[in-house]
Amino acid sequence: MKKKLVSLALVSAMALSVTACGAKQAAPAETTAAAETTTASAEEVKASKEAKVEAAVAKAPDNDIVIALPADATHLDPHVSSNGYSNQITNEMYECLLAFDENTNVVPALAKEWSVSEDGKSYTFILNEGIKFHDGEPFNAEAVKAVYDRGVADQSLTLKRTIATWEGVTVDSEYQVTIHLKEPNNTFVNKITQFRIVSPKAMAMENASDYLAKNSAGTGPFKLAERVDGGYTKMVPNENYWREGSTVDSLTFMVVPEDASRIAMLQTGEADVICPVPTTDVPVIANDPSIIVDEAPGLTYRYVTLNTEWALADGRKPFADKRVRQACNWAFDSEAYAKVVFDGYAKAPTSIFSDSIYYYAEQTPYTPDLEKAKALMKEAGFEDGFDVEIVVDNTTLEQKGATFVQQQLAQIGINVILLPNESTANAEKTSAPLEETTVQMWYVNWSSGSYEADGSMRNILHGEKFPPNGYNTAFWNNEEFNQLLDDALKMTDTTQIAETYAKAQAIAWEECPWIFLGNNNTVNAYKTYVTGLMYKPGGTMIFRTVGLDQ
Amino acid sequence: MGRYVARRLLETIPLMVIISIVVFMFIHLIPGDPAKTLAGVEAPLEEVEAIREELGLNDPLIVQYVNWVKDALKGDLGRSFKSDLPVTELIWSRFQFTIQLVFAGLIWAPFVGIFIGVMCAIKRGTFVDLGGMLFAICGLSAPGFWLGLMGIQFFSVKMGLLPSGGLGTLKHLILPSMVMGTGIMATLARYSRSSMLETLREDYVRTARAKGQREQIVMFRHAFMNSLIQVVTILGLQIGGLLSGSVLTETIFSIPGMGRLLTDSIAYRDYPTIQGILLMFALQYVLINLIVDVLYGVINPKIRYD
Amino acid sequence: MSNTQNEQAKINTSFEENYIDENIKMDTDGKVKAFVKKFMKRKTAVAAFFVMFLLLILALVGPSLAPYAPDAFDYNNMLSGPTAAHPFGTDQFGRDILSRIMAGAPLTLGVALSSVIVGATIGTVLGLLSGYYGGWIEMLVMRGADVLFSFPDILLAIAIVACLGPGIVNVFIAVAVFTVPSFARIMRSATLAVKGSLYVEVARSLGCKDGRILFKHIFPGTIQSLIVNFTMRIGSAIMAASSLSFLGFGANVTDPEWGAMLSQGRSYLATAPHMVYLPGLVIFVTVLAFNLFGDGLRDTLDPKIK
Min CA distance, A19 vs chain C (Å)? Predict the structure, then answer.
């Protein structure tokens, strides 16, 4: 008798696996089709958006909006935090003198007008009047200066980065303030959009950061209500907001690290907005009539650095040879990369940074050509290929991308070995100076938080930015390129700046210090009843005027 | 008994000292630079250096340790590198979620487990026994994170019955409690069965039976109460397992508990927080063992504290 | 996975109680025969043994039998569900999941087996020595075990892997480390029990050397609890290794390690759930087989259960 039961148990275990298979039988055809025609479906998704908004009948169950994000802010003090999620959250509570709209145009915010002096060294701002901080303090020129003073006094703040090139701030009148620069700098206007204004009263406190971790003291549309570190951050509308604000009762950013859970929460209505949507899951929600999927060209540019100084055991330096570096790019199919790694929600590279960045200049793409790549490898004396290690973060997406790179380079005999590790451990490795570095290749990405060309190149390609001073782990040092960047920074004439940056981009594109991978789009999804969403460049959402259809 | 507890507490002091040293040294062996991570990729070198200085990372390790212990004795575990909140406050806020999960697991699992075990022992050698034990061993062999993921897919996405993550209502606790409790349920079913079987063979049970006491009374009064001792031990030891399980459960169900705090803190090389959490876990273990020992005496008066 | 600790506690007590009346010097041939005969009566355990055996064979020859290369990309066939060509479906790169599971068997089972072998060997030696010599060796080993025990095993493993960096070798080290203390404890108490027995006394009075007594007389007496504990540990080692991989602290994702496959698959839970179901099921069946086998072994070796 027992014998029978055992086999019964085994059979049921098998049956379980069969059920699992059976349940799936219908779906794979769809998924495969989706994988094949992802680009097409990406367009369909866009097309269906309007139709869904028209047809939307779903009403919000309450007036509390919940946004699911994959990670938490590190700190709510807007001068301390630096990661993307911190910015996303603090942006709703703090504002800057100027801001960017979704097309990367500079628009007024706390300042209604601004002007530049002849020599390009002084910027004068006329401030909006009658604005109050969350703690009741008035917003004026003194408040602007106080932020600068805080940055000078505390070197450990991220704020310091914004004001590093400033000479000083003068209060011209109650609502007029002038910022003086040490020398002209074409990135100033971009940087000022990261200069968040905080109530002077809060900053003057003995433990300002502690206060700001639990209270908001900005001028923004929302005030901090409640926060569980690692759990959620809840805000309520600022009843004294100086322009049109939101109509919701509350706004909650919830931390949901699992991709599958974020999708499930949007489906069940536990979350009203999720960003970002993992691209593999778009097909799951694309056909849901109550969900809108929105995509925007992202700012995050992905690339693999090729350490030009790295030597094989026999002393040869493969990546010192331009032909090997170019061969890698000719061998790499960036369209397939976009399709496989990002399900079509990415753009093949046409320059060394995203086209949403100021002064982007289009280059001729490296369309995959294996013959050419092999020929170049042969010419360089590497027709037999070589083994190389690639440093990569251990998240699913990053590893997926690096695995793709591995497979592409295998075609020309380059055997790539993945070294996945946590980003923190990688940061230590990649910031080692040339003499000590172990980095051969690095699968990485970069985005300039202030959308500027200089910020998109200097830290990662300039010859002075070898680690630990920067992240030029290609150890690529091109005098002409360096000079162009340095010159452009001091220029004031925009056409001249554009020309200079175009030249720099052309050089790097031709020299290939990296394998250019491309930039993925930001995909967001929200329920049809969510209204009034706005975007920053790169697809970051702004909830200033958000509402819910009741 | 008071003296016994006091002595046991005293005995844990050297253990805690060793643990604190191990924890501290260990953490600092983890490769990675917290200052660099905090500053972010775009940060210039001077800013990283300023942060490093501020966090005290430039002091010799031994100085850092002594400072940490001094503060820890005052109940101050330092401040999180990442969020700048006091570690005690951080741990406390996260601990509440983890404890909810632990209770959610404990509220059903031991009862179901003991019930299955006792039933199996009474009906020894029958289908009930075999089925119960197969069920238990399956529960022991299924990876919790796998069960959780399948639970989400089935109950939340397909059926739309239960929330897929977060905490708040009782409904939110159902799936996590399933994942948390399965292991305990299975372990207890197995133990209570074998300890019940063992007690059933004891002389005094036989005597009671021979004296003609009613079967239920014999079962309950003697056999069941006695096997409870074993079960308490196991339950005590299982708490550690529950805390382990919470790391996985919290990750799957997006619950900001201690387990996730630990994995997040490791990612940020947030030394004070990692130290605090590990110390907390060690302390819990020591305390739970103490409680279990004391409980022994309550259940079984034969044990003397001397 | 924390159940094993208690299994051991339990095994110990029954072992110690029963050891003395057992006749150690029983004729070995007869003993093995009796054991096999007894074991064959436990059908579940026998079935589990065959599954286990198949899995071990799979680990040896699986990679060469796999229908596809485990890293063969197929961009026209990504995330496809089970079909005739791909009975377990394909993953996000169009790789055949069945082939990957087969190719991953030596990795997953290899890590589990080798870490338990290494951990058990170290633990056994430490346990024998501390049980036999007592004194400062015992003090040191047991305090060390206390320290390791005071962290829930997964947390300990996470901390170790965080320190050494992720990768399959470091998972092996982490699992081996937390295997050591439990073996040390069990072997110590088993040694203590045997040490007091008559024939050891005799051997000693005859002037046998310590080494000889330890390995000729004491070690064979403890081997029962060693074997049982060993099998039970393998199941939890597989589970621990896959949990670590699941949390991102384990194997390299390009390796077809089962836990790593599951971890990668969870991003596709909504679109391609077979990527989660199937590797999870394989882990489940494997752990189940080892646990059932261990169970049967324990029951057979335990003289109390007939």
Answer: 10
